[in-house]
Amino acid sequence: MKRLRPTWQDRALQQYEHQIAWIAADSIQNAERMEQRVRASLSLLQTNPRFAPVSLRRTGTRQLRVARLLFFYKIHDDRIEIVSVKHGAQNI
């Protein structure tokens, strides 16, 4: 099966980094664990891009939940494009 490489829109990467920094302010270890979970989840999406459900909140995207973070992404022929990252408690 073809592996799709993950790419990030600039805004989505900034949102992700902000969430990790917020977690790290409380616990570096928790932030590192979150990053590991995100990497594992993105690795799964590379071979199973339709693993996560279609988003009912954002048209044309799928929504992957990793702990309390929501990753909204689009599937292209050769890549997965992460378009937004939100905390589950945020108003989306």
UniProtKB/TrEMBL annotation:
Family (UniProt): Belongs to the RelE toxin family.
Organism classification: Bacteria, Pseudomonadati, Pseudomonadota, Betaproteobacteria, Burkholderiales
Naturally occurring in which organism (per UniProt): Lautropia dentalis
Protein name: Type II toxin-antitoxin system RelE/ParE family toxin
Pfam families in UniProt: ParE_toxin
Record-linked InterPro entries: RelE/ParE_toxin, RelE/ParE_toxin_dom_sf, TA_system_RelE-like_toxin
Superkingdom: Bacteria
UniProt-listed Gene3D superfamilies: RelE-like
Parts of the chain that traverse the membrane: none
UniProt keyword terms in alphabetical order: Toxin-antitoxin system
